[in-house]
TrEMBL record:
Source superkingdom: Bacteria
InterPro entries: Chlamydia_OmcB, DUF11_rpt, OmcB-like_DUF11
DUF11 domain residues: 40-125
Gene3D superfamilies (alphabetical): 2.60.40.740
Protein name, UniProt field: DUF11 domain-containing protein
Pfam families: DUF11
Length: 281
């Protein structure tokens, strides 16, 4: 139970005439002290998950507890979303003691789309209110971004913050690019060699598993199988395609019927894979 001490002093100003002079004075009364017992409001914040994938919605619950035997009137709950997140319309659910109680809710304001305001008219002694809602992921999302959120309870001119809830967005971002080296020639002729490179990058913050690479070369060209099996690099280091004990590369890729070790069992974040091969016609 919270106790608020209220002190009060009265003041009196007066004047009187003494001979031809006017005398003024101000006096103070004694101080009156009153102890007021108030409800003690606790607030907690939680989310459905600490980790989310790309484009997954945020799901929050605010729990407000009247921890005393005194009713609390006019408890205002506010929650400002992190920049770039928006409240999802009609996703809010407000319960008091696990029951809908619209008579005890003055207003729910979400007009700004980036914050919510709920005014609880009456939170009875030992009662619990829960406010659940959803929000969109940040508009400028990237792998590893952390979304922080905190709620506040305003009661009797005292603001009580909740705990901070953090949610991390984890997902992979795979990019693939193709490079051809025509040995300085604009046009090639039969028996000319060309070097092809396939560059794959994981720019996300979680590993990619069972990455499969395929490349359809025109039937006009011939492929040197050894140039493929001996030229797979991970972050610049040559990987021996025959060494399956490394648990990184397996021979499952076929380019025009030729088996090529280009199934990557795991690609950790910031990894670059280069597959290089020579072809001619």
């Amino acid at each position: 139970m919270a106790t608020k001490i209220i002190n009060n002093v009265a003041q009196c100003s007066y004047a009187y005439t003494l001979a031809s002079d006017i005398v003024t004075n101000t006096i103070l009364s004694n101080t009156v002290t009153t102890n007021v017992d108030m409800a003690d409001i606790l607030i907690y914040k939680s989310s459905s998950s600490k980790y989310l994938g790309k484009d997954e919605e945020l799901s929050y619950t605010i729990t407000v507890v009247n921890n005393t035997d005194i009713d609390a009137k006019g408890v205002v709950i506010t929650d400002v979303l992190q920049n770039g997140c928006t409240y999802l319309k009609n996703s809010m659910d407000v319960l008091i003691n696990k029951t809908n109680s619209t008579n005890n809710i003055d207003y729910i304001n979400t007009s700004s789309n980036s914050s919510i305001n709920v005014n609880i008219l009456l939170l009875s002694a030992r009662s619990v209110a829960t406010i659940s809602f959803k929000a969109s992921p940040p508009s400028s999302i990237y792998p590893g971004i952390i979304v922080n959120n905190i709620a506040n309870a305003l009661y009797n001119s005292v603001t009580t913050p909740s705990n901070i809830v953090s949610t991390t967005y984890n997902y992979a971002v795979v990019e693939i690019n193709k490079i051809v080296d025509k040995k300085g020639k604009t046009n090639i002729q039969c028996n000319d060699n060309m070097d092809y490179q396939i560059i794959i990058q994981n720019k996300g913050n979680v590993p990619v598993i069972n990455l499969k690479v395929s490349d359809k070369i025109d039937d006009l060209f011939n492929i040197y199988p050894t140039s493929l099996t001996q030229n797979i690099k991970i972050n610049g280091s040559l990987i021996d395609g025959t060494n399956v004990s490394a648990s990184i590369v397996d021979s499952v890729l076929y380019i025009n019927g030729i088996s090529v070790p280009a199934k990557i069992s795991e690609v950790i974040p910031t990894t670059t894979i280069t597959i290089q091969g020579k072809i001619n016609c």
